[in-house]
Amino acid sequence: MLKINPAVAAIEEETAFTVMDRANALRAQGHPVINLGIGQPDFQPPKHILEAAEKAVRDGPHGYTSPQGLPALRDAVAQYVGGRFKVPVTGDEVVIVPGGKVTFYFACQIFGGPGAEILYPDPGFPPYRDAARSSGAKPVPYPIREEKDFGFDAEEVLSLITPATRLIIINSPANPTGGVVSRAEITRLAHGLAKHPNVAVLSDEIYSHQVYDGVDFVSFLSFPELRDRTIILDGWSKTFAMTGWRLGFGIWPKHLIEYVKKLITVDHSCTSVATQMGGLAAITGPMDEIEDFRKSFQKRRDMVVTGLNDIKGVRCRVPGGAFYAFPNITGTGWQSRDLARELLDKAYVALIFGESFGQNGKGFMRLSYAASEADLAEALKRMKAFIEA
């Protein structure tokens, strides 16, 4: 009998994709499914991005690039990020990768291993836990609290650091909650980490453009004292509606780049050239449509939060960012896993049950409002009718 690596066997399926497959199967059978389970903007990428990628497919270049990415794209990312946050960033700190997940997966590979511990948010993006586990490290959850608007308590996080801790993963604005950690807590965490020089930070900032109501987003690049052990994860998928393009970037301390490049040559050699050319057009082109996307998400957020709070037994805080709502459904009498199953099978609305994001997600559901207003209105109508029946 074949023997499977236990670290690989322990990896769990990402529920959002399992639900997407189930929703697509029901839709193929003729059912009017509305999928609010997957975090995917319903917009098309701006036209100039499509044209740049089309030209690259037709005219080239068609060969390998540096494992680190096209120099022009890395320089453009450095200028873009440095300008946004008023910090110095250079192209040799940037690594272009096929999707944001690669950055945190590589960070776990670099800092993991037997005996290591990696801290991650709970509820949080499930692949954080599995990336840590597959590296051989012990994943250690830290709590994300509803009463803190789905932020964390810096002192509580710091208290979980042990001599075995090698990496802490931060995500703000967050998946699945939409929470944005306050500047005060981020600053307290950063100052506390100064006392733990052996702990690296992976800050997943993929939703940093999706913040609302003047919410104060703080990048971990803002703390120069941690720069030599801070990794920033970002990319094109959420901001530019390019989820299927698989294009992300990491900003790494220079002394870690050699390890990242080794992993790239083993894993994927380089990122698709045509995709990189599309990314270059996106990051150097006009941003007016990107701001329109953000405003549309904010309008949808307001609509969804109002609709959820109008359902008996459901309460939902107003998320400060991303495009997710994380309603508390304990007042309905349902278990979240059961409710998610029944809503899909009987009301044809796909959501994700909270426990799939960690034990602290119990009693919650994740709803993505990266869908049309018409679909959101109909989904809320169906949910209300089903839950209150």
Helices and strands, with pairings:
Elements: H1 6-9, H2 15-28, E1 34-35, H3 47-59, H4 71-85, E2 94-97, H5 101-111, E3 117-122, H6 126-134, E4 138-143, H7 154-159, E5 165-171, H8 183-193, E6 200-204, E7 230-235, E8 248-251, H9 257-267, H10 273-284, H11 288-309, E9 324-325, H12 336-347, E10 349-350, E11 352-353, E12 365-368, H13 373-388
Parallel strand pairs: 1-10, 3-4, 3-5, 5-6, 6-7
Antiparallel strand pairs: 2-8, 7-8, 9-12, 11-12
Helix pairs in contact: 3-10, 4-10, 5-6, 11-13
- How much helix is in the residues? 40-55%
CATH superfamily of the largest domain: Type I PLP-dependent aspartate aminotransferase-like (Major domain)
Strand content: 5-15%
The biggest beta sheet is recorded as: 7 strands, mixed
* General form: globular
Structural class: alpha/beta
CATH topology of the largest domain: the name is Aspartate Aminotransferase, domain 2
Query: What Rg, in angstroms, do the CA atoms define?
Result: 21 Å
Please outline what is shown here.
With 389 residues, this protein is α/β, with parallel strands linked by helices. Helix content is 40%, strand content 13%. It folds into two domains: 140 residues, Alpha-Beta Complex (Aspartate Aminotransferase, domain 1), CATH 3.90.1150.10; 224 residues, Aspartate Aminotransferase, domain 2, CATH 3.40.640.
Task: Summarize the structure in words.
It is an enzyme of class 2 (transferase). Its EC number is 2.6.1.1. One of its GO terms (biological process) is amino acid metabolic process. Belongs to the class-I pyridoxal-phosphate-dependent aminotransferase family. By secondary structure, the protein is α/β, with parallel strands linked by helices. The chain is built from 13 helices and twelve strands. It has helices spanning 6-9, 15-28, 47-59, 71-85, 101-111, 126-134, 154-159, 183-193, 257-267, 273-284, 288-309, 336-347, 373-388; strands at residues 34-35, 94-97, 117-122, 138-143, 165-171, 200-204, 230-235, 248-251, 324-325, 349-350, 352-353, 365-368. It is globular. The model has no long low-confidence stretch (mean pLDDT 96).
